[in-house]
Fold:
Amino acid sequence: MADPTGSTTSTAPTSHDDAPVILRAQNLTKHYPIKGGVLRRTVGHVRALEDVSFDLRAGETLGVVGESGCGKSTLGRMLMRLEEPTGGRLEFDGVDLYSLGRREMRRKRRDIQIVFQDPYTSLNPRKTVADLIGEPFDVHPDAVPRAGRRRRVQELMELVGLSPEHINRYPHQFSGGQRQRIGIARGIALNPKILVCDEPVSALDVSVQAQVINVMERLQRELGLAYVFIAHDLSVVRHIADRVAVMYLGRIVELGTEDEIYERPTHPYTRALLSAVPVPDPLARGTRQEIKLQGDVPSPANPPSGCRFHTRCWLARDVCSTDEPQLVERNDGRGEHRSACHFTEESVSGRTTP
Ligand code: SF4
Structure:
């Protein structure tokens, strides 16, 4: 990978169609109460996540994209059960994680780990790399015998491309990219099956982003990890994802293979997001029309009726403000592709952009 933001093509992802589903989200919903008045009564709800459903197969990468506030980070926390759901199921290996008690959940959490966005704030500056990468062993002491922890931390450092000699250094003695490698090493310390990556490279320079993404791709091949890769940068997601979910105001509005989403987007919101991605090829740039969305993302405390995108959609008709579109198949035999829009690909693409 030379430049994640400057590429219009991606490396061909491996097909995981035959791999088993290891994580299944069904109608995941999260509402946060809004408290008001002297008595701090609930006066409303922030609808951060609404009826989100998807499958994740072993060894694949599901990219989750959308503007800030679309609910993608809430989704990441819910996959880790760092948030309790308002509704829905989350099945891992056939077990509903939300039905588990604390002790069982802690055992399951070994298999689903997270890498946070900001390597500058997610690492305790007073701890050495040995302590930071070894933290999961404090929570799961049976994972590695105490006598073998230091050796295991050094192995993990080598896996992510850090020098094991630096095991006693502190976070401030590393660059941003190296710190994120520390976060990744901590994330894979317990040999998880799934790594939830919440904007893992967005705080890094472009060239460093590419290095970290390369490490993640190599780890996926070597360890068979599945990633849920949450990001606002569509170019980065395109490079690493096998399948992509596009979110708007707490809902998935389009879901499909990387090729379908990037080459044949059908939802107007996806088309608008993609039209804003920089194109390095001047010839390709000349033929593309940028779609500038009007207005701001509405408040999730008071989302629009019907299609949540209708207040900004240049294709909206009356039905869009009253009837909520469901995610339905747009697949015509090329690959998985679902979209939540009342109109078909043909009727949408046949109309002019704003
Ligand atoms: Fe636009 Fe209507 Fe489709 Fe929503 S349902 S994306 S408002 S055309």
In short: The chain is about 30% helix and 20% strand. Confidence is low (pLDDT under 50) at residues 1-13.
